[in-house]
Design brief:
The complex is a heterotrimer of chains A (314), B (289) and C (240). With 314 residues, chain A is an all-alpha fold. Chain A has helices at residues 6-22, 30-56, 64-79, 85-107, 112-137, 156-178, 181-191, 193-198, 203-229, 234-237, 240-253, 260-275, 280-297, 301-306; strands at residues 148-149, 231-232. Chain A has one domain (6-306): Orthogonal Bundle (ABC transporter involved in vitamin B12 uptake, BtuC). Chain A has a two-stranded antiparallel sheet with strand order 1-2. In chain A, helix 1 (6-22) packs antiparallel against helix 6 (156-178). Chain A starts with 5 loop residues before the first helix and ends in an 8-residue tail after the last helix. Chain B has one domain (2-107, 129-277). Chain B has a two-stranded antiparallel ribbon. In chain B, a hairpin with a 2-residue loop joins strand 1 (129-132) and strand 2 (135-138). The radius of gyration of chain B is 19 Å and the shape is globular. Chain C has helices at residues 42-50, 72-78, 95-104, 111-125, 140-153, 170-185, 197-203, 221-226, 228-235; strands at residues 4-13, 16-26, 31-35, 57-62, 65-66, 80-84, 158-162, 189-193, 206-211, 214-219. In chain C, helix 3 packs parallel to helix 5 (140-153). The radius of gyration of chain C is 18 Å and the shape is globular. Chain C starts with a strand and ends in a 5-residue tail after the last helix. The chains are: A mainly alpha (314), B mainly alpha (289), C alpha/beta (240). At the A-B interface, helix 4, helix 5, helix 11 and helix 13 of A face helix 4, helix 9 and helix 11 of B.
Chain lengths: 314, 289, 240
């Protein structure tokens, strides 16, 4: 599967997505349905992460900050402010934007190392806010370590289609932007930021845009998960494991490509399911080894194998 | 007033340890441009080495410092030769991801080996204090603080008064030129990273005497080291002492007067403010590009 | 009004004054050579002009407006761009795509127009059949051409060329000089920093000589070549 040009590939992908959409109607349900839904979630998450880190080369180590923020925002808006899911979700995404702007604004003008660690610290700090916030401020808002329970959710099919749509959205955005001015600008930043700046690319502005967009979408995904699970606690929605998985999925599949996150997420989700609880303790070790091996041997991920030895780009 | 002074002193003593933890991070960064996301795990390993030697063999934590130094030095050497050397010229993104991979492997292996239990080091002198006008100064804290200072001064002397140290600084300033002068870059990188791991390990030993020890403690220390380094200036080793003291005092005061629960949040806000207002650190000598 | 003016520009790095009270002016259509021994401040001066460094003292005036302290991408969009041997291309992108970036951003063109201009630039450089090759895989000489192409794509009217002929053989140098003449013919102004002396002498109408960050000579190439201070700066006192 060489890198497909937009025109050739489009019908194939449409058929593929329509097929996925038809599955529930053909009788797929229960465990299989939920597994696919989970898959769509991870593809979306990896895709959003890829959008910032894969394309600009500025590694975000705290995307879970927005996942958790989105989850809590949606939960709080629905529980304490009686909002409908749709409005709560939209607002949750919007709430993430200024947060991302703050973190990005402080760190994206300087070396990538600052961004990497500041994003990680942000995730931990926000987790702490939800864990300790109530106790410190003396009121009942986040629910502390007991978490929050959301209103009852619609059936599995609702989330299947919602996340399928979201996944298509994320892939679509990435695919569309790849060959536009914005996409080229981002890639230029990754490849040679100084050359980009000297070529007229407003590097800071583009990085901010990518980061805010990516974070807001991740926030929405957090909101969807909150509604889907119906019960959230800080240790779950702010869990660093999500960051790790987003990173590995994209790295494995190929950073900075449209299909890399899809391949990586698909692979890891399915493998994770089959290994199941068997290797719980070793899972992290294995993931770590995977990262090390990929970096040393195949830094551009699986997609680099697929782009062909000739190395020609479209 | 006494409370304030006590808090200040606590923070000061704590800061020394923070500084020792961060010195290696700044060194690795200044010389090789590597941001070591597994840095905190060296602290953890140093802490565990000290813990096990004490618990299993009864050896005093202060006396086993050289062992920690040697073991972590070897580990650093090993990691550098095995993997880090391969990405020497590559974009920084590689080092973040690679060292993050190290972190996962090291911390989860530690978890597997030693379980998630919290452990504390309890030598016989643990509870003894020195009392000065109503202020409580635990002996062990005074000792660890002094050792932290010794560690940092030792690093400083190493970098500025020895042949190897000079070579390291030359490489940090201009790798190309250093190579032309006959300095073997990869050897320097190996030694630098090994030294970084070693002193961080010793800092970990000191940490073991002050904090609880558990396999997951690494990551918070990486973040702490980073905060110290931002305050002191990334790549500017002398600055880490001040960075450490500032952070220690800040955290101590925040815990005393505001709240213990939100210390991470406050530290993070401090970090953001520093990055926005003065990213080059207190002395302005941090590397920004 | 001069195209570019430097007024007492000074840039320090710690205790070192890399550029010291440098003043000069440049007219449209000139080809100016900027020479001086290693470490004399030429690259630093370029970096100040193009926005990478902010001058500690003095001012840079481009087209009548002060640009000191503006970000590099803004200065590029205003019409001044730098090409340098130390700038890496966008390696994962093809040669053509490398040119699209400066075209769309610096040159403010749309994607389609950028493609058209890129095709023209590739033609000018003689790289027509290399468009689809990943830029990580081209030869050194081609990389230099690509770098030149990059600044051409920005549409800048003042080009600062920093040692782009380093490492080229004499035939390649001749080719490069021909290109520069052609570019000047299209109305561009060029400041050239080079160590390849024959090239600089040949093509520059005027030379400015830097030593230790200061301007020590200025004038026509033949005059400057005979200037004892210049000779001393390059070769040392005995030769003056």
């Amino acid at each position: 599967m060489k890198a497909l040009s937009p025109n050739k590939g489009l019908p194939v992908f449409l058929v593929f997505f329509l097929a996925l959409a038809a599955l529930p109607l053909l009788g797929v349900e229960g465990y299989r349905l939920r597994l696919l839904t989970l898959l769509f979630l991870w593809v979306s998450l990896a895709g959003c992460w890829n959008f910032m880190s894969g394309y600009t080369g500025y590694i975000d180590f705290g995307p879970v900050a927005y996942f958790g923020t989105g989850a809590y925002a949606t939960a709080v808006l629905m529980i304490r402010f009686d909002l409908h899911f749709a409005s709560a979700l939209a607002l949750s995404g919007l709430i993430c934007a200024p947060l991302a702007a703050l973190v990005g604004g402080a760190t994206l003008r300087i070396r990538g190392a600052y961004f990497a660690i500041a994003t990680f610290a942000a995730a931990e700090a926000l987790k702490q806010v939800t864990l300790e916030g109530d106790r410190v401020a003396g009121f009942e808002f986040f629910g502390g370590s007991h978490g929050l329970t959301l209103p009852a959710a619609p059936d599995s099919e609702f989330f299947y289609y919602l996340l399928l749509g979201f996944m298509v959205l994320v892939i679509g955005i990435t695919h569309f932007l790849e060959k536009t001015k914005f996409g080229y600008g981002l890639k230029a930043i990754r490849e040679s930021e100084q050359a980009a700046e000297l070529s007229g690319v407003p590097t800071f502005k583009l990085k901010m845009r990518a980061y805010v967009l990516s974070s807001s979408l991740i926030g929405c995904l957090g909101g969807i998960e909150a509604y889907w699970l119906t019960y959230i606690i800080p240790d779950d929605v702010f869990n660093v494991m999500r960051t790790i998985q987003m990173v590995i999925m994209t790295l494995l599949g190929g950073m900075g490509t449209v299909w890399g996150p899809v391949i990586g997420a698909g692979f890891l989700t399915l493998v994770g399911e089959f290994l199941g609880a068997k290797f719980v303790y070793d899972y992290l070790t294995i993931l770590g080894v995977v990262i090390v091996v990929v970096i040393l041997i195949l830094p551009r991920g699986i997609m680099s194998l697929m782009k062909g030895r000739r190395g020609e780009t479209v | 007033m006494v409370l304030f002074l006590q808090s200040l002193i606590n923070g000061f003593l704590l800061g020394g340890i923070y500084a020792a933890c961060a010195a290696g991070f700044s060194l690795a960064f200044g010389v090789m441009g590597i941001v070591n996301l597994s840095h905190g795990d060296f602290v953890m390993l140093g802490a565990f080495v000290t813990y096990w030697l004490f618990v299993l063999l009864g050896w005093d934590p202060f006396l086993t410092l050289p062992i920690t130094l040697a073991l972590l030095f070897i580990l650093g050497l090993f990691l550098q030769k095995l993997a880090l050397n391969r990405i020497a010229g590559a974009p920084p993104i590689m080092s973040y991801l690679l060292t993050f991979g190290f972190h996962l492997v090291i911390s989860s292996l530690a978890l597997r080996a030693w379980t998630a239990d919290y452990r504390t080091l309890n030598p016989t002198y643990a509870g003894l204090n020195f009392n000065l006008c109503g202020l409580v100064l635990p002996y062990s804290r005074l000792a660890t603080f002094s050792l932290a200072l010794v560690l940092i001064c030792g690093l400083y002397l190493f970098l500025y008064r020895t042949e190897m140290g000079r070579a390291i600084r030359a490489t940090a300033q201009d790798g190309e030129m250093a190579r032309l002068l006959g300095i073997r870059i990869f050897k320097i990188y190996a030694v630098t990273f090994a030294v970084s791991a070693a002193i961080t390990g010793v800092a970990g030993s000191l940490v073991a005497q002050t904090f609880v020890v558990y396999p997951q403690m690494g990551l918070p220390f990486t973040v702490t080291a980073f905060c110290v380094v931002v305050l002191g200036g990334l790549g500017y080793v002398p600055g880490t002492l001040f960075g450490g003291l500032i952070l220690g005092i800040f955290e101590s005061l925040a815990t005393t007067y505001l709240t213990a629960g939100l210390s991470l949040v406050l530290t993070f806000l401090l970090l953001l403010i520093m990055l926005i207002l003065r990213p080059g650190g207190v002395f302005g000598k941090g590397a920004l590009e | 009004m001069s195209l570019l003016e430097c007024r007492q520009v000074t840039k320090r790095f710690g205790a070192l004054e890399a550029v010291r009270r440098f003043s000069f002016s440049l007219e449209k259509g000139e080809i100016l050579g900027l020479i001086g021994p290693n470490g004399s401040g030429k690259t630093t001066l370029f970096n100040v002009l193009v926005g990478i460094h902010r001058p500690d003292e003095g001012e840079v005036v481009f087209r009548g407006e002060s640009i000191s302290g503006l970000a590099p991408h803004r200065i590029c969009r205003r019409g001044m761009a730098k090409a340098s041997q130390t700038i890496r291309p966008f390696q994962e992108m093809s040669v053509l795509e490398n040119l699209l970036v400066p075209g769309m951003y610096g040159g403010k063109l749309g994607l389609k127009q950028a493609r058209e201009r890129a095709a023209a630039v590739l033609n000018l450089l003689g790289l027509e059949d290399r468009g689809r090759v990943p830029s990580g895989k081209i030869s050194l000489a081609e990389r230099r051409q690509l770098e030149l192409g990059r600044v051409l794509m920005t549409g800048a009217e003042l080009l600062l060329l920093d040692e782009i002929m380093a490492g080229l053989n004499p035939a390649e140098v001749e080719r490069a000089l021909g290109l520069l003449e052609k570019i000047r013919g299209e109305g561009k102004t060029i400041i050239l920093v080079e160590h390849v002396m024959q090239a600089v002498m040949k093509i520059s109408e005027r030379l400015v000589v830097l030593n230790h960050g200061e301007r020590i000579a200025e004038g026509k190439p033949e005059e400057v070549a005979r200037n004892p201070e210049v000779i001393q700066a390059y070769l040392g006192r005995p030769y003056a």
